[in-house]
């Protein structure tokens, strides 16, 4: 692992970049601002390495208007309806930064905070651990939360993302990684040709504000059935009301788990490059976002303008609006307990054209 300067915040605090490499042609680069993954290079079917995530080469765009490119999201990922929830008979009013609702931790969520970074060496490979303390009341959340996120790159081209958190008062915790993937590395203008498989027989529909209705609905017979490999563009523009609400896919799928531990959540294949990506997780859900709000107004790495659906997100998570839904997995964390979660992004190649 190497460490280098990556600019400074307006208040003068330094931001550092940590670069992980292995012997098989993979590299992961992450910065201490937002614990953001700024680049992941992986080989294609011909052995050529390319950068498979959207983002920026410099710090300033991440400060100004980045749509969560590569960031760690918290204290609670995704949306919370009307920016409030009740915990132990106490109503917690959060920052409303998505209309009247709360999104991805608020105005200054974990993605906009400076983290401490430290090198870690394990039997599986080198990594970097980012840590921070989220103060009681930050963005409206109760309890002082100590958070650690570890990125570990293995010799088998796996990126392990391990989350831990502890609190001194009852709170809610739902952390995720928000990289936008494009396995073609810009060979195509969008990711609609990528083939996606989701190990989920149900999803959670949303209202017009993208807040879950509370229902858990089978995917069978709907555009949300990705149980077999399906091109993202095959049905994304169907007239389905749920797709209209999201402007495409921006929904939580309920993973078909067979027990505790890691389970396969998603598999992604780019026919152009042959690159593949499997996502495995201990989480109960995954948010598949098809990059609907990218509109060409952001220019990222290599001078590429990010048009609609230039990248996609696979956000392993507890369900959106979980604090307000008794039938959803609970995101509540209490003193004396430790939040632990793991997601593995496994990169590979499909040699068949």
What does the model show?
With 353 residues, this protein is mainly beta. The protein has a single domain, classed as Beta-galactosidase, Chain A, domain 5, CATH 2.70.98.10. 3% of the residues lie in helices and 40% in strands. It has 2 helices and 27 strands. The strands form 7 sheets. Strands 11-12-13-14-27-23-22-17-20 form a 9-stranded antiparallel sheet, with no helix packed on it. A hairpin with a 4-residue loop joins strand 13 (145-153) and strand 14. The longest helix has 6 residues, at 241-246. It is globular and about 60 Å long. The two termini are 34 Å apart.
Key phrases:
353 residues; mainly beta; Beta-galactosidase, Chain A, domain 5; five-stranded antiparallel beta sheet; globular
Order of neighbouring strands in the sheet with most strands: 11-12-13-14-27-23-22-17-20
Number of strands: 27
Based on Cα principal axes, name the global outline. globular
Task: Kindly estimate the percentage of residues that lie in beta strands according to DSSP.
Answer: 35-45%
Low confidence ranges: none
Q: Return the CATH class.
A: Mainly Beta
Major β-sheet, in short? 9 strands, antiparallel
Helix content range: under 10%
What is the number of helices? 2
Using only C-alpha atoms, the radius of gyration works out to 19 Å
Distance between the termini: 34 Å
CATH topology: Beta-galactosidase, Chain A, domain 5
User: Strand-and-helix sequence, N→C?
Assistant: EEEEEHEEEEEEEEEEEEEEEHEEEEEEE
Structural class, please?
A: mainly beta
